[in-house]
Amino acid sequence: MKLVIAVVQDKDSSRLSNALIKEGFRATKLASTGGFLRAGNTTFMIGIEDDRVQEVMVVIKANCKVREQLVTPVSPMGGTTDSYIPFPVEVQVGGAAVFVMPVERFEHY
Ligand code: 2BA
């Protein structure tokens, strides 16, 4: 068995939830926060048999979009803040950051 952990954008979370249910996957959603943007995102925990991991990946990929987001750096890289004018930079977020972990034991009572 594997545990698939997928960090996705909030905008994709209900679509992904619906798709996982439709395809017969069990999942738990956790509210999370990105360490870099400090914006809300959603983390899915999906427990799945080894031979269905690829199917889960396909569903995640099909339901999570890459988006551009503007970020304003808090302070300049190493320089003085005297003449610093914050300038927004664009970063590409998502579709999903996915981790696949082995599960030593799963009990369901
Ligand atoms: P955040 O940490 O808020 O990152 C949002 C986006 O900002 C990232 O998109 C990436 O494009 C950019 N970014 C992150 N750290 C950066 C850095 N040090 N320098 C420059 N740009 C940076 P994604 O890579 O698609 O990540 C989306 C979210 O997935 C992340 O939100 C984080 O919550 C999670 N994530 C991504 N990689 C992870 C990892 N290796 N471990 C744990 N969580 C991860």
UniProtKB/TrEMBL annotation:
InterPro entries: CdAMP_rec (IPR010375), N-reg_PII-like_a/b (IPR011322), N-reg_PII/ATP_PRibTrfase_C (IPR015867)
Pfam families xrefs: CdAMP_rec
Protein name, entry field: Transcriptional regulator
